[in-house]
Amino acid sequence: MQIEVVTLFPALIEDALRYGVLGRAIERGLLSVGMHDPRAHTQDAHRTVDDRPYGGGPGMVLKPEPLCAAIAAARQRLPAGSLRIALSPQGQLLTQARVQQLASLPGMVLIAGRYEGIDQRVLELAVDQELSIGDYVVSGGELPALVLIDALARLQPGALGDERSSVEESFGAGLLDWPHYTRPDVYQGRAVPAVLSSGDHAAIRRWRATQSVGCTWLRRPELIGRTPLDAERRILLEEFLQQQRDSAGET
Ligand code: 9D3
Q1: Is the distance from CB of 81 to CB of 88 less than 8 angstroms?
Q2: 137 CA distance to ligand 1 middle (Å)
Q3: Homologous superfamily of domain range 173-250
Q4: Distance 230 CA to ligand 1 centre (A)
Q5: pLDDT (tens digit per residue) in 70-126
Q6: CA 166, CA 175: separation in Å to the nearest integer?
Q7: pLDDT tens digits along 162-211
Q8: pLDDT number for residue 152
Q9: Domain residue ranges of the chain, discontinuous segments joined by +
Q10: Exposed/middle/buried for 84, CB within 10 Å: 0-12, 13-18, 19+?
Q11: Is 141 in the pocket of ligand 1 (CB under 6 A)?
Q12: What separation in Å is there between the alpha carbon of 116 and the centre of ligand 1?
């Protein structure tokens, strides 16, 4: 997959691309990420990329000409069938389902805004969709673009190596992880659940599935409403809730 990012801060994105799963995916050639700075597409001596908003108010708006020129340059490097996506607080919410859809594209231009936002005509003329990473405010589209790039990198075949398959991730999708433990066996008086050192792999799988569905019910009940539980998971949830009632009775 090929991604071209349009940003006023290419170094911010490039530095983050060197680490972890993302860095390895790029090293292995599973993903290629290029940068396009609208400032390189300005014509004036001051290399102006922003201007005051029509109608007044605080902040500045990204000017259409340099931004569109950068988008056009980015697009020239991409195969047919690629999409232009702007990161914007007004965009549709990024979900794992959306990441999976986008992962099948040959490439995309990601447009990261700064200041108060992007001139509406650019969004209408040169952008296919707008995406937000959630209902909170960050200072620009660069971190949201990195979030999307990272999520896409994990889905490229070969990116995760042995660590964990993305099939496993999408299988578990919709539920939270179970709790994880490593040595020592007892830490500050708290022991690791005995089942995890029992060597009984069927019991371990069952404990993890129970914890996964139970913790999701307690912390993120709305996730369970979204993907109804199969019969096995309903039984595991009943078991989890019964264990909860039992241990509440002891205290
Ligand atoms: C929504 C707040 N805006 C009106 C007061 C001002 C504003 C704040 C931050 C306008 C743009 C930005 C920069 N944010 C992004 O470009 C952005 C973003 C975000 O802030 N939250 C979640 N997802 C995204 S994607 C791009």
Answers
A1: no
A2: 5
A3: tRNA(m1g37)methyltransferase, domain 2 (1.10.1270.20)
A4: 38
A5: 999 999 999 999 999 999 999 999 999 999 999 999 999 999 999 999 999 999 999
A6: 15
A7: 656 665 565 456 899 999 999 999 999 999 999 999 999 999 999 999 99
A8: 98
A9: 2-154, 173-250
A10: buried
A11: yes
A12: 8
Ligand 1 contact, 150 CB (< 6 A)? no
Please indicate whether residue 34, judged by its CB atom, sits closer than 6 Å to ligand 1: no
Please work out whether the CB of residue 167 comes within 6 Å of at least one atom of ligand 1: no
Give the pair of three-digit tokens for residue 165.
Answer: 């398959």
Structure tokens at 136: 């909170």
2-154: CATH superfamily: SPOUT methyltransferase, trefoil knot domain (3.40.1280.10)
Listing DSSP states for 150-187 in one string gives HHHHHTSTTSSTTS--HHHHHHHTTSPPPP---S-SEE
Residues 215-237 have pLDDT tens digits of: 999 999 999 988 889 999 999 99
Task: Check residue 16 and give its pLDDT.
Answer: 98
Q: In what order do the strands lie in the sheet with 32-36?
A: 32-36, 2-6, 107-112, 83-93, 129-132
Q: Are 224 and 216 in contact (CB under 8 A)?
A: yes
Contact indicator for 75, 109 with CB cutoff of 8 Å: yes
Instruction: Indicate the pLDDT class of residue 14, thresholds 50, 70 and 90.
Output: very high
Q: How far is the CA of 158 from the centre of ligand 1 (A)?
A: 33
- For residue 222, give both structure tokens: 């709305």
Mutate to test the pocket of ligand 1, among 137, 148, 149 (most ligand atoms within 8 A of CB): 137
